[in-house]
Design a protein that fits this description.
alpha/beta; eight-stranded mixed sheet; 11 helices; globular
Amino acid sequence: MAESKNPARLRMAVIGAGHLGTFHARILAARPDVELAAVLDVSQERADKLAAEVRCPARVLRGEGSADVLAALPEGVQAVVVAVPTVFHARIAVPLLERGIACLVEKPLAESLDSAHAILAAAERGRALLTVGHVERFQPGFRKLRELGFRPRFIECHRLAPFSWRSTDIGVVHDLMIHDLDLVLDQVGANLVSLDAAGGAILTEREDIASVRLVFDNGARANVTASRASLSPMRRFRMFSSEAYVSLDMHKNYGLIVRKGPNWDSGRVSLRDLSAEQIAARTDLVTSGMLELVELDLAGMDRPLQAESEAFVESVRHGRAPAVSGRDGYRALELAERIAREIAAQGW
């Protein structure tokens, strides 16, 4: 792998000057430990516009072949963010990974499992670091739960969005639900036993709404719903275990834990002779110490995309395992493929 011209700064490039590529380029250009060597795109106009904003050179991709990608990449680039349409992920990432260049490939990892496997194999051949842009892993609430070691037994999550014209080349399972599939797999940490999915197309030729029930071999369950045909957005996770109930609202960056308080056992005795209405009227269940409500302190934590970028840079710089591995991305894609196939077979 070629070294940066300035050893103190990681020499990087962003391939794809669209929506996500723009955000990645802005974040990297603002980092003092990164030298943004170029932004690349098939459109000269898009590349020039973004490059002017982040003050770095623009390069144009004349094609999507290996030779085209390598010819357009500036000399000495050590790491790349691949933010092109999903169908081009493998064509861009494979030649880079084979030459030992670290890649952050936006989610989903690829448009098919065969292409995803090709990306993993290229990373292995080139001994290159590969991470996948499942940015929701870096939501402050999930980072806090990871610190606390919380393991849910039942998960219910909703990811709803108004319709936009972005990502219409893929269905809502690969576009939105795959975020939550990755989160569920990470939170549960077990193998999938079965699934039952439903959904269908409303506004496009692919599924625009999807819901699935997942069952894991450790007994955990998850209900996952995604829609890109809703009137208002929602990104909410509710998780339950024998120790606590956790609610996360990613739109509001708010998290709440409800669990037994220090007076739970003694307080239960006083409730035994009360009716359901009388118990519901009690307003002192928290103040009496029977229940404990803990608001998660998420203030001051980096925004998800910034935290993802930080993790990628640190992994490349120090040779650390990525927070979201290529194998993680493959598992999420594999599950998304199963769900999308089951929905398509229903013929809605």
